[in-house]
DNA sequence: TTCCAGGACCCTG
DNA sequence: CAGGGTCATGGA
C-alpha cells in the first residue's frame, strides 16, 4: 500500500532518527522502519510524506496516527513557543514531531535505554527483534511479543546484548501476560498511570513518563533525564537537587499542556548542541 | 584505562 | 527519605 500525507513542516530525519524511537534507519533517500508487524518505507517529497507499507496491513489512518499527524501541530507550536528556550529549540530543530507509538514497543525499547545511549538502545532493540521476533521480510523482524520474551531464559536473552536489563525484560513481559496493566493505563490519571507502570521491573519514573509521552500520547508528560535536568538547572534556574516529581511538576507548569512535546524539542536541540548549556 | 550513556534497583544510615 | 554502589555493553 502507498499512502500520502500532507505535512509540509515534517522533518523525517529529525523525527525518526531521534531519541523517541529506535527502530528506524535512513537508507539512501528514504527511511525504513518496523512498526508492529509492518515494514514501512517513508520519504518526503515537497509538502508530502510518501509512505509505502512494504509488509503488513497497516491502514492509512493508523499510520497517520503513528506519525503524530492527528494533532493540531500549529496549535502545539504556538502554545509551547511562548517559552523562550523552547522557541529557540524549535527554531534550531524545526520539523520535529512526537510520534504516537505502540505502548508495548515503547515500553520494551525504553527499558533497553536505561543507563545506555541512543545508538546502543537501537542496537539492543534490533538484536531483540532479530533474535526473538517474527520475521516480516528478508531483513526485518518485529519486536518479540511478551509471550516470547517471558519464555526466554536469562542466558538466552543475553545474546541480544541487553546486559542486566535482560531479566527486567523477561519479568516485565511475564507481568504483562498475567495482568492487564498496559490496557488499564488509558483510564488512569497521570500520577496513577506512573505508579502503575513503575511496578514493572526495569521501569522507573523516567521510563514510565517516556511510555506515557511516546506510547500513550500524553503530550503533557516530561521525562526527566540527564539532559532535561541539565536544561532545567542551567536555563530555567531550578535547584539541581530537586526531586524527580518536583522537576516534572515544574516543567509541566512552566511549559503547559504540551510540556512533553516542548521538552523533546529541548532534548533534541540540546543533544544537537544548539542550546549552549 | 577510565568514563559515560535519555536509569533502576538495592542496601545503609 | 537520602546517599551511595552496582549493573552489561560499547564507544570515546
Précis, in short:
This protein has 277 residues and is an alpha+beta fold. Helices cover 49% and strands 11% of the residues. The protein starts with a strand and ends in a 6-residue tail after the last helix.
Structure description:
There is one protein chain. By secondary structure, the protein is an alpha+beta fold. Helices cover 49% and strands 11% of the residues. It contains 15 helices and five strands. The chain has helices spanning 12-16, 60-66, 73-80, 84-92, 103-113, 118-132, 146-150, 154-157, 165-177, 181-185, 190-197, 205-215, 226-234, 244-255, 259-271, and strands at residues 2-6, 24-27, 30-35, 38-45, 48-55. It has a five-stranded antiparallel β-sheet with strand order 1-5-4-3-2. Strand 3 and strand 4 (38-45) form a beta hairpin. Helix 11 packs across helix 12 and helix 14 (244-255) packs across helix 15. The radius of gyration is 18 Å and the shape is globular. The mean pLDDT is 97. It binds a DNA duplex (13 and 12 nucleotides) through residues 19, 110-111, 113-121, 123-124, 158, 161-166, 168, 198, 201-207, 210, 223-228, 267, 271.
